[in-house]
Amino acid sequence: MTYPVNMSVTPVVSAHFDEATNTISYIVRDPSSTHCAIIDSVMDIDYAAGRITYDHADKLIEEITSQGLTLDWIIETHVHADHLSAAPYIQSKLGGKIGVGEKIMIVQETFGKVFNEGTEFQRDGSQFDALFKDGDTYMVGNMQGFAMFTPGHTPACMVHVMGDAAFAGDTLFMPDGGSARADFPGGDAGELYDSIQKVLSLPDEMRLFMCHDYGPNGRAIEWETTVAEQKADNIHVGGGKSREEFIKFRTERDAQLDMPKLIIPSLQVNMRAGEVPTDKDGNPMLKVPVNKL
Questions:
Q1: What is a GO molecular function of this protein (predicted)?
Q2: I need a surface site. Which of 144, 257, 266, 276 has the fewest CB within 10 A?
Q3: What's the confidence (pLDDT) of residue 195?
Q4: 12-270: which CATH topology?
């Protein structure tokens, strides 16, 4: 696959860190217009209380409205297991299309079974406005973006590239953070390694923006690096580490990890494009599958 990389365009990127989930959401603005996109929004949840709020999303909305921007896209890099998407809430305020990778259908089928969803739960990705295939292009104002299929963490992960900026989702962390786990249903460490190599084949000066950061060894939270820095310094894949080395490390490491605290609500909401499921009376309601994850 040859991707339409255009390093001559430098989008304006605004990062918004969510401390509760260590997620970074982005507003990406076309430098030649007032159009923008949002990458990986967050909906706040107090899981113990069963209470949903929108403080993080409201900050994105406020920035876009205060600058007089037009929102073209609300993009999910994948079905997140550690935070809930605020895509439909943002869309209700600002418009824009909600997009995700076309392999969402695999995720919906897999977790539709885990959560014992009935036939009313559509497993065809129809909850989203656009399903991206590998290499698909789209426009943010005058700026062309494109999607790279990067499975491994999940079967539906995609990296989105706009000009000289690539939004890595969970395919990569900062160099001292390495990579994301590959042990969720549908994940695969070998596929993740191959996907990372695809990302690292982008130009060395390509800016890479992470979806998460946890401040390894007590450092301050960071979210921006470059392809060159990742190739040289990433602790899991940098310096020419082999596929076999990565698979061995990733498999052993994943076996030691606890499940994300918000995986149960996140999967149910995110596979529905950010909509909270309801019971037969239309009340918002989440399920807790026992011994299924």
A1: hydrolase activity
A2: 257
A3: 98
A4: Metallo-beta-lactamase; Chain A (3.60.15)
